[in-house]
Amino acid sequence: MKGLGELERTVMEVLWAREDAGGQAATARDVSRALANDRDLAHTTVMTVLDRLAKKGFLARERDGRAWRYRPMASREGYVTELMLGALNETGDRDAALAHFVRSVSEDEIDVIRETLAGLMSKEPPA
Prior knowledge:
With about 130 residues, this protein is mainly alpha-helical. The chain folds into 2 domains: about 5-70, Arc Repressor Mutant, subunit A (Orthogonal Bundle), CATH 1.10.10; about 75-120. Helices cover about 60% and strands about 10% of the residues. It has helices at about 5-20, 30-35, 45-55, 75-90, 95-105, 105-120; strands at about 60-65, 65-70. It has a two-stranded antiparallel ribbon with strand order 1-2. It is elongated and about 50 Å long.
């Protein structure tokens, strides 16, 4: 999965936050309003970024009257996971990259990794 540019990431953050809060899909106007305090962007710029993100597969869109409503195709965590897997695919030695990564995380993060692995290991293999 390709990375996002700065403005694309900012727009995605608005949509991910909205989704995390249980909100419905957003129109370009909703996104423009959410960004108004932080950035001085023309509404047409927001519309262009949303359209580009939909064409790249980051957003799903549906018609709502004359407007489009946009929602993320994947969660923020899913997106970051795809970035991490893409980075691993770029290395010649995945094992070494994983080992280096694990050595660089905090104790709390190691606990999360251990718990996740334990959960995976405790599942019965399918028959």
